[in-house]
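re: ur question from earlier - yeah i can do the single chain one, its not a big deal. heres the input i used so u can compare w yours
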Amino acid sequence: MTAEQWFEKGSILYGSARYKEAIEAFTSAIDLDTTKAVSFYNRANCYAAMRDYPEAVKDYDKALALDPEDSETYLNRGVALYCVGEVDKAIDDCTRSIELNPGEAKAYVIRGDALGLLGKPEEAVKDFSKAIELAPRDVGVYYNRALTYFTLGRLPEAIQDYTSAINIDQKFARAYYNRGIACSRAGDYEQAMSDYTTGIALGLKHPQAYCVRGALSAKMGNLEGAMADFNKAIEMDPEFALAYFYLGNGYLQMGDEARAVENLEIAAEMGFDKAHEVLEKLAARRR
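and the output i got, formated as tokens:
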């Protein structure tokens, strides 16, 4: 087979998500012709799809050595570098990709994510905003910008972006959950409770979600509902210390100190420091 035929076979295999076979085919194409940047690029994409990012970066390097003006190669290498923690290099690649193709929303998204990791949320917001301008129906960008606004304490903007994400995808469970957190922080407990419940109903099956809803239920005076959520969290993950801590505090509110201590001790044994503090206060009170 010729290099072109191996390349074509690799492309078909890649399209069928048969990445290992596609890598073999692209390797055969490269063995016959080492001058085609796209062969290295496509093999790199296979490695990236398999989450073998170090190998992907090596092939993106080779592709760029042959074609140093390809914006997609810079972008994809930036993604791979981001995934292996090379955040500064990822930003450089995304920036170069943007210089070559200013209309690529994904480059702004990845650079925004990277800037957020570097503790530069204001710059991240600018990139997410540009990405939204370029791709106004991309639910993930609204979600990422909402997370960043929340980090900055800009709750109205965070809530608005979560709402925009939900309007695009009404089954986006984590957007409901995080909007609930923002609403709770802003003092809108009714909306927060509604959002937690919707997120859970849509499939957010994580003990943290039940603990957060339970804590809000307790705050709103629904201790029975709170205890049910704490117990559900423990059922889902018997090693989840926060649930035992909340459950212990719930029993304290109910006046059942024995069961409170039992659950607080479990949380303390799991290394939950606040449980130690409560137990010490209870012990001091009994002395």
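The mean pLDDT is 97. not sure if urs matches, ping me
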